[in-house]
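Quick start: load a record and inspect it. Here is Reverse transcriptase domain-containing protein:
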Amino acid sequence: MTAAKLVLEPVSEAQFTEASYGFRPKRSAIDACEAVRVAANQRREWVFEAGIRDCFGTIDHDALMAQVARHVVARHVVDRPMLKLIRAWLRMGVLEGGVTCPAGAGTPQGSPISPLLANIALHVLDEAWQDEGRRLGVLVRYCDDFVVLSPTRQRAELVQQLAARVLERLGMRLRPEKSGITCLTRGGQGFDFLGFHHRKVESWKWRGRFYLQHWASATAMNVLRDKVRAATSRSRTERPVSAVVADLDPVLPGWAA
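Running the structure step on this input writes:
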């Protein structure tokens, strides 16, 4: 799967748009947050935030393979054995209790190639924003989480309808609990995206002007505290300090970054 990813990734990267940030070379969540900040500070006060329900488990196989084939053909790399191999991975099923259940939808869970396949499938959403969605707002997508920043509430509502319509073609649906419209005007309620809370804050220099800032979300903070508590629990005081440090080392540098 990793070998296939190394072959397909450059072909797909040549076609992906600037709206996509997740699981792509030289792009990160920090870059996505910066794109959100820039768009919000250009008088786009309404945000449609959304997540896709079980993205990796609900992608329609036929729709996904159509997108993969389209990407390959667009770069004049027609490799039928590669397409057959990917389709075989998609159909190989899930082993549960010694019995293999056929997979009618979705990508191999936790596999190296799944994020790339998800990006290829969701590229249709990015394309929609280069066409019909351009007038509605700025799309920032990190794999199956995305936000669209719009100048008016009416356009944000149209964004929700367009996103739902495009995703339906892939067999996907928006997650109601993670989807909604937020107003940022003059320090409105703000929203969570990629582990950060984004909200407009009044400038200390120019009173009456508000600019978007972000800091770690409450959920992300709680997750970190739980990991630190687990590593330093009093019930584990018999462990040597070096063992505690070894548990914390993978957690803290990532958090700092």
